[in-house]
Amino acid sequence: MLAAPPAGAEVAKATPAAAAVAHERLWLGSAWYPEQWPEAAWDEDLRLMKAHGANVVRIGEYAWSRMEPAEGQYDMDWLVRATRLAAKHGLKVVVGTPTDTPPAWLTQKYPDTLQVDGTGKTLGHGGRRQFSISSRRYRDLSRAIVTQMARALKDEPNVIGWQIGNEPTDESYDPEARAAWVAWLKQRYGSLDRLNAAWTTAYWSQTYTDWSQVPFNTDHANPGWMLELKRFITAQWRGFHQNQIDAIRAVVGGNQFITINFGGLGWANRFDRYEMNRDLDFASWDEYVGSGHLKPWRAGASHDLVRGWKRKNFWVMETQPGFVNWAGVSNMLYPGETRALAWQAVGHGADAILYWQWRNARNGQETMHGSIVGPDGKPLPIYPEVQQIGRDMAKASAALAGTQPVSPVAILQDYPSRWAIDFQLHHRDYDQIEVLLDYYRPLKDALGAVDIVEAAAAPLAGYKLVVAPNLNIITDAMATRLTAYVRGGGHLILGPRSGLKDEFNRLETRRQPGPLADLLGGQVEQFHALDEAIEAGDGKAVVWAEQLSPAAPDTDVLLRYGKANGWLDGKPAVISRRAGKGRITYVGALVDDAVMKRLIDTALRDAGVTRAFAVPADVELMTREGGGRTITILVNHGREARDVALPGSMTDVLGGGKVRKLTLPAEGVAVLQQ
Amino acid sequence: MLAAPPAGAEVAKATPAAAAVAHERLWLGSAWYPEQWPEAAWDEDLRLMKAHGANVVRIGEYAWSRMEPAEGQYDMDWLVRATRLAAKHGLKVVVGTPTDTPPAWLTQKYPDTLQVDGTGKTLGHGGRRQFSISSRRYRDLSRAIVTQMARALKDEPNVIGWQIGNEPTDESYDPEARAAWVAWLKQRYGSLDRLNAAWTTAYWSQTYTDWSQVPFNTDHANPGWMLELKRFITAQWRGFHQNQIDAIRAVVGGNQFITINFGGLGWANRFDRYEMNRDLDFASWDEYVGSGHLKPWRAGASHDLVRGWKRKNFWVMETQPGFVNWAGVSNMLYPGETRALAWQAVGHGADAILYWQWRNARNGQETMHGSIVGPDGKPLPIYPEVQQIGRDMAKASAALAGTQPVSPVAILQDYPSRWAIDFQLHHRDYDQIEVLLDYYRPLKDALGAVDIVEAAAAPLAGYKLVVAPNLNIITDAMATRLTAYVRGGGHLILGPRSGLKDEFNRLETRRQPGPLADLLGGQVEQFHALDEAIEAGDGKAVVWAEQLSPAAPDTDVLLRYGKANGWLDGKPAVISRRAGKGRITYVGALVDDAVMKRLIDTALRDAGVTRAFAVPADVELMTREGGGRTITILVNHGREARDVALPGSMTDVLGGGKVRKLTLPAEGVAVLQQ
Amino acid sequence: MLAAPPAGAEVAKATPAAAAVAHERLWLGSAWYPEQWPEAAWDEDLRLMKAHGANVVRIGEYAWSRMEPAEGQYDMDWLVRATRLAAKHGLKVVVGTPTDTPPAWLTQKYPDTLQVDGTGKTLGHGGRRQFSISSRRYRDLSRAIVTQMARALKDEPNVIGWQIGNEPTDESYDPEARAAWVAWLKQRYGSLDRLNAAWTTAYWSQTYTDWSQVPFNTDHANPGWMLELKRFITAQWRGFHQNQIDAIRAVVGGNQFITINFGGLGWANRFDRYEMNRDLDFASWDEYVGSGHLKPWRAGASHDLVRGWKRKNFWVMETQPGFVNWAGVSNMLYPGETRALAWQAVGHGADAILYWQWRNARNGQETMHGSIVGPDGKPLPIYPEVQQIGRDMAKASAALAGTQPVSPVAILQDYPSRWAIDFQLHHRDYDQIEVLLDYYRPLKDALGAVDIVEAAAAPLAGYKLVVAPNLNIITDAMATRLTAYVRGGGHLILGPRSGLKDEFNRLETRRQPGPLADLLGGQVEQFHALDEAIEAGDGKAVVWAEQLSPAAPDTDVLLRYGKANGWLDGKPAVISRRAGKGRITYVGALVDDAVMKRLIDTALRDAGVTRAFAVPADVELMTREGGGRTITILVNHGREARDVALPGSMTDVLGGGKVRKLTLPAEGVAVLQQ
């Protein structure tokens, strides 16, 4: 066994009370940048926030040059004044650390802190995130400014928590990062022989005889090397954040929560988000629609993914007040759609909705982005809709406090497998997020929010059905966990490409699903990238199909290919086997929606999973449970009104009174309590 | 107020007589490179030029290594011989300075003169324009060679003028350019506080505490910084050219004109062409069709733009004799199309048509380009058509001498606004040249050539209608000028996105149109990038629509949106208000051709602008006036013959005699005098 | 005349007996990498190879780090053991030199051996071919390892030959390569005056006054310079290979053959493959289908091209066992298609089919590539089909030994012309390979394999028809050869763009076809890139059309344009003239398939070329002759069975017995002996 990754353990957290504040009610607010405006304008800004129902404001995260205009000369007074003015207006504060935007003096004096990108180019001042996450000096400078901030704000009662940096993205390839890489490899592998064996460096004469020979750039394509680099990047990011977390905790103790806003790319996989979240009190992300309009399945799955990072409710730390500035077409959402988006987020486990941003800076990269007030400080047309959300939340907050989505089904997600497939697509149209969504859509239609959780670590015993659409890498430990789940009575469905690789992204010497082949009583004889659609049952398979073969007498063939490419004609496409008290099923192809729906419906029925009541097309039904309450949230994502019949009389939390049926207009929302 | 840009003033010019020679007749000729051929071949080249009616030849502009084969060793004798041989054939000469192509010895000895592009790459020898416009040494070397040329040619009577370099394009990012940038910033802003305020550097911690911290590359995206960089580049180019102009004037005095050929990208905006033209006697450009065939609206607008750079007639310094070598499909124009192109150019104010090139070099980057004679020195199939143009010009030159297009309507153009919109498109399909052409097309159909002039400086009083399709930046000075124009009786039409920004590309704190909102009596509540077409009046709006609101009681709503995206449904799309003796109209959307035509037709009718007579589709009617003469040029751009009825008897300048009606074949041309 | 290119002469070869072994039978096998697997697994690998009928195995070509784990420490024992184990199983061995993959210690210690690509980027360890072909040190290190290998294996009786490196691709732009470039230029041109004249450096002031000024990068676009760079690259590659060939020959003498696998891009033109092949015993290449399925015309032409490199049979050194890993869609071939592909290759002159690869490495860049056994060492579904090929070859090998395709028609190919056209396409859709295939398709339908041979050197006298579809450069020597061919009774057909350039890629001063214009009795007046299809005879011309004009009284117009772009209307498109005992024809346009078929059919009929018998659509008929035998190979490339009637009774080599007709199933193959 290899040495465990460094820093994998959970670290000190906020006290339960401080952490709980994030979930004790629904939060509404925006990002606000007082440093961009004359202090005389602050009061009116905060008054207008309060007037639309905000209860929180996010400040500070890009203001390093304002807080430390010259090295070691700190000015936190303005920050304290802004915080206290927010308190005067009844607004809580989340403080962002400014480490995404080092000041110009810092970059000028310490060019060794600059990021070197994968092409070898050194970044410069003027944008964001030009620093190296691996720079010791940058970490020290970060610790110093963050410590000063914590000292200034630790006793401000309306400061409820901290956000570290904002939207972590790129790693660095500078010499210091290279040294860290070599150290990482030594710790992980212990000897070059083990590294050479794990990566099969005999291939193409890649054998390393000195640690410093191992490449460190983005050109390389040995899948073993590539996977290890991802693990290293994750660890570097984690260390970068931990440094600041330690600094804050050293000052504020456990009285304020700490989160990271992981940005708008929920499915991004530049680093392992499960690892990154271990050190946080809860997860945050950005929900941006960009061009066009909300895609409910995709957005719902993103929320469920984020909720799964820590298996608890989360914050939407940024979302668009109407439109963004960076999309191909930065159109505005429809009237009501911003509200529908907020309530869908809550239905999937969001406890906070923060808009980016309150008011546009007069210059800088994002002046054209949507905001709630204009550069004139006056409400824009979106303001009344945000005010409506404020009124909604005031009504629903108490009912929803302490509740969260509860799912009888889990979808397994695994960053190593994500990387492994993406490194070697084999078919340009193999989009594993779409593969996951193929399973997610019928599950969400049946269940509302669905847990999307970490394949390697999430407890599975409580789930009636576990679906692993893309488990390309199945480690021995994972195989043990999954076997125990099945034998204990669960139903595990594996998608195509499962179990092809081991933990080093090395081909298994057993055919797929590798360490689960015996449990399955069957294996994959050959995988096929498809250049044409083929028949699968009474539907179609596209892009990918595997030739399965049952080996055990009790392995059932659930689906066969029809007319195909010759090799697959009539061959098994889905096989399944009872094992212990449970069942394991292997789906070898990407099948069409109808075939998938039958597959999932059957699995749900067999597992005894049912839903309270049916809703029309376009209406999303979500449920949060907790504190003995079950809260139902309905959102009509369509452009037409829809009638919904309830299974009984329910309290209409937003509209008031009891209802047995209701009509949701386009973008309409209802919150119901049983 | 900030300090004015350096070198903004007009500089010494040719004497009136020397400058007037450019416009005293129609000029026809080509670019000729005697240095590429044995001297024995020169006479036949010049004889064939004269035989097709040429009266001018352009020489010298890439021959530095021939004129100065080693540092300080000048050989101008061949140039003088070529010039005198041209004189013998009755051809005038325009001399190009060779500074676009430094010799290999220069680049080798002085690598500090090399251009560093925006990615940090240093250019090398072998192409064109590998020098840095900011290199003091390169300017000195340029001055030396140009001085030698001027001395050699100053007394040659057939030398009528000079062209500086050829087709200016890229700036440089070398260390010397960086130093110039810092100096520029200091002069423009005086203090970093003012710079920081203008660019809102509080955003993303961009605050500069030392001048040398300000970035100088092409990665940066702060719109304030980006705009300033464009102004700096303009000034660098202007200084680069002024250096040579001074050198020539010091030798030849005011006896020969000086121009620059700005190249084939009329709408290019790498630098401010108004600024660049201030130092010249007249403007020149390249008209290249490239793939396909002449697009009359686009070509006409390009000519009108170029005429507007100095508000006087111009030269087409290069155009294709049939085809080019660089287009995706370098097809040949139709028979007659080369002639139609020439006469359209004259109709829009060209006083010269020069072909590039006379004869292909046997090797080098452009051997496949169209030419008039082949590498065998014998006429190619295009030769007879060029000869026809020569005969035409011989007949029409006297009538057209001293005339120019006269337009009762102006379209305003502004490079800072061009940059501002392009920096932040917000909708990938927002093409501001297309937006301008939306207005231009109905105006050109109604008027022929239309003045396209500098928003910041062109006198407006004489125009009955002024259209500003893209005035994103409205400075206070511009607002004062436009207000005076309206109050004095003019009609100003503003297009979408007008008045969003100030001179630093900073959001106005008043809503659009910013400093003109009071005059308009209304404002833009919100702009919308459109992801779907919406109704506007009885037509459609696409890509962009703004929600307008009248504030003054006398502000009229001329057009409303119909069914739209919810926000815009029924809202005003065009508002207008009488102000003083005039009127201001704001058009908030990109509307379809029919809606635009009604808008423009109404504005023309209200302004009392009418046209002499109507012409069929595909026939372009252009008028030049001067010296008491009105010359009408008709070109049939279509593929079918067209009959044109004249309003009375007119002299057929090309065909001879008087006509009251005529039939134009495909690509047919007529020149008529009343 | 310029000095001849260095190293142009043929070099020492294998003895006739050693060279003949490559063609003495049909060879079947795979690439095998014992260094990637425990030695205990080798025997089973070799057993399974033998069991499917393999008789050869390729080893060694990427195992440098295994053979020389530290500098000067050689370990060849494993290689000898693997070779002897192969012998035990009756398998011959082809040894690959490992110089495509320098070990990490080498790159680390000698960074001066690294390749600098055309953008100036230095490559690093971890992929393939990161070395500089111009590095003296790398050549020395290569010679050392290759010498050690030769010493270890020279007396192993089952070693039949060597492969130098694998798939040569990129040259290097490092300082040492630059010095070699300057030396090359001095030798080629003797003086800068000659170089300047050849490249017309008077154009754009490119004149060189010092050898070191000449650019050496990939930015430059002077066509003369570009062509010379290609010649230099060819010479560098040739020298790189010759170094190893000399090392091997010094040890093994003439007892083993030497080849190079030129990779999968048969039509690639990074260097001149005729030059590269002069030093080899025979040519090898990779046949990879990639996405989709076999395209018989394209594949056949590729084989014919490769056969033409040395005008003898060749080896398919790599081909896909079902699928690849690098295509957009890496789909599997149909059942039977792998076999059909192998037999088409044999029909076009392949004497060996080697699969890449036997067994996937567990990690490394190509783990997903098709193979014959899996990482578990057990047969994959493709195995039985490969076994079928083994059985086929066992039956057919004796009949085919010593035979090769014989073609009465030659297509001329010329790398300088290839480069010249590609450097200056003039029309983005001008694809000269497609132009060649336009001629090839009707020729192949009529003849089976067609010789595609070197325009500059292949003997022509034996051909009844010679087609030069793309002879853009016609040197004086080539003109002499072609004139002699025509005058001697041959028929030469020239395609468009012929004879535009001389050997320096310089425009001819005679119009096309330049030095052949007098023979043709006509010339090209003007070439036209077409932006629209035009009429040509009763068909169409697209992309390119030239206006031809007969000058001699006996020049015939075979085809005229109809309605075209005005210039070409009614003008000659194809002209032809009897000259001496033969004929020369010039085709000025890219014509449609029907027009081309008539043109070719007429030429074949006039030349008296006929075929033995007709086959249905989709069935390819190929013939190999030798040793008094004529062997016919039929392959049905279609998806339906096809009946073929034979001209008489023939021996069914694979099926046994005599047949007069047969039915070929989809992907069916027959080998027939008369």
TrEMBL record, chains A, B, C:
Enzyme class name: hydrolase
PROSITE patterns: GLYCOSYL_HYDROL_F5 (PS00659)
Active site: 167 (proton donor), 318 (nucleophile)
Domain of life: Bacteria
EC number(s) from the headed UniProt entry: 3.2.1.23
Reaction(s) catalysed (UniProt annotation): Hydrolysis of terminal non-reducing beta-D-galactose residues in beta-D-galactosides
Keywords: Glycosidase, Hydrolase, Metal-binding, Zinc
Pfam family, one: Glyco_hydro_42
GO cellular component, one term: beta-galactosidase complex
Any single GO BP term: galactose metabolic process
Keyword Zinc belongs to the record: yes
Record-annotated Beta-galactosidase C-terminal domain positions: 618-673
GO molecular function, one term: beta-galactosidase activity
Domain Glycoside hydrolase family 42 N-terminal: 32-395
Chain positions recorded as substrate binding sites: 128, 166, 326
Domain Beta-galactosidase trimerisation: 409-609
Family affiliation: Belongs to the glycosyl hydrolase 42 family.
Protein name: Beta-galactosidase
Source species: Sandarakinorhabdus fusca
